[in-house]
Amino acid sequence: MKIKKPKFWDYKSPNIYSYFLIPISFIFQIINLLRKKSKFKYSTIKTICVGNIYIGGTGKTSLCIKIMEILNKKKIKSCFIKKFYLDQVDEQKILRNKGKLFVSSKRTDAIYQAEKEGYQVAILDDGLQDRSINYDLNFVCFNNINWIGNGLTIPAGPLRENINSLQKYQNVFLNGNLENLENIKKYLHKMNQKVNVFVGKYNPLNLNEFNKNDRYLLFSGIGNHKTFVSMVKNSGLNVIKDIEFPDHYNYTNEDINRILDQATNLNCKIITTEKDYLRFEESKVDKIKCLKSELQIMNEEKLINIILKENENN
Fold first, then answer.
1. Among 225, 227, 228, 274, which residue's Cα sits nearest to residue 247?
2. What is the chain's mean pLDDT, rounded?
3. Contact (CB, 8 A) for 87 and 2
């Protein structure tokens, strides 16, 4: 069973638990600083890393898919790279449905295989902190609602790197439903005046499959549950109840039966995300429908120019 991230991670400021864990966070930061970053760059394949410093639920996979679409339109042979984790098979399935995916326990091995097969660009879903790879282009994703949480690093907070590391990144994505944009942009530009800030908005793809006169129970086991709920409500569907599970949660028959019982008691139909839906066995999902979504890039032309310019320069 997955463990939910501590609620105090997403408080606006640190609390007593955070302060108690700060010494351990400092140790992790020192270890990261001592790790050497590779200077090696691949000669025949370009690498684009879509990563985060806030752990989980920042829209990395959705952005990878959007970048793949951009490169496909330009006839640039591209693929996805993902490090193998047993609990992330759902994301692997989604990426495989959108393009060629190379998976390995080491990202470098997956990139090497893609290079052997003649791919021009490798899009890495996660891996920003993988110091064995010197990426050609980095994108750092954030969720607008969660943002940086309490601003501290693991385990005192939800950040993989110290917030000051944003000074070294040139491209930041703010994904969600357009929440808190101005405040976050001001923060980013104050820290790094040259940073390129992109905005991504989640749009439902199969809304026509749902009746706005019905009542709905939502559930998900993703890193940005609140954003999913916000998207559904903004789409005009009548949400009576929502249930949040830990990220990459493995549902049991007991979980599913409990959800079905609650929906029956509330006279609701059930909606979940595509990622969650892919974790079920077919026998479990008769009364559960998934609402698919895609990431709309609000300033897409700027993103296209940066990606293509990097590809030409290398």
1. 225
2. 92
3. yes
Token pair in block for residue 256:
């599913």
Please give the C-alpha separations between residue 282 and each of 12, 193, 257, 286, 288, in angstroms, as whole numbers: 41, 50, 14, 7, 10
Tokens describing residue 16: 């007593």
Q: What's the pLDDT score for residue 140?
A: 98
Q: Write out pLDDT tens, residues 43-89.
A: 789 999 999 999 989 999 999 999 999 999 999 999 999 999 888 88
CA distance 159 to 162: 7
Assign domain 46-201+296-313 to its CATH architecture.
Answer: 3-Layer(aba) Sandwich (3.40)
Measured CA to CA in angstroms, residue 157 lies from 34, 161, 169, 199 at distances of 21, 10, 20, 24
Q: Which CATH code for domain 206-291?
A: 3.40.50
Global pTM reads 0.91
